[in-house]
């Protein structure tokens, strides 16, 4: 066995061990972590008891989930939240100085089957409809309807996606093909 193979084998073992230990630990600390859901390394989570993550959702490396004393983060099932996404719940009142005099917490809600591209930022109070896509680097300041793609700063709808049944059917076919090929 070459050194590179040995190294990659050891790394896979370590990351498996990490997930086996880390997920049960997170399950105790978070408000909810559904079955099959996973959170990759180097994520930062504040007020973890106010973070609720649905089944089979994955949170990529380096994400920042900033829940707060009264601001929850609720993420649905089968979502893909790519690396370095930031979800923020605390904010301030622009009409008030000093800034810290008024702290506001607004819950962020993300539906099922949502894909958030890398480096996106979801601001306080936003709701993202099920099956929608947030493009990489978008800053989402307002609610996003279901089944659309948003992109840019601030994020705007750039596309209406195919009907959900068709996308699920495409997914089913892709999984079958992958199984046949392996
Ligand atoms: C959103 C995304 C999936 C593109 O999907 P697509 O269906 O191929 O969309 P298109 O390329 O046709 O883009 C539609 C419009 O949105 C714009 N757009 C796409 N991605 C954008 C982005 N990240 N920021 C700003 N605008 C973007 C395109 O320029 C295009 O605008 P136009 O109609 O004025 O030309 C892709 O750009 C993206 O952000 N992927 C995320 C990848 C990622 O984060 N991977 C991590 C692992 S999951």
Automatic annotation (TrEMBL):
It is an enzyme of class 2 (transferase). GO terms for molecular function: acyltransferase activity. The keyword Acyltransferase applies. This is Acyltransferase. Its EC number is 2.3.1.-. It comes from the Bacteria. It holds the Pfam family Hexapep. The keyword Transferase applies. Keywords: Acyltransferase, Repeat, Transferase. It comes from Thiobacter aerophilum.
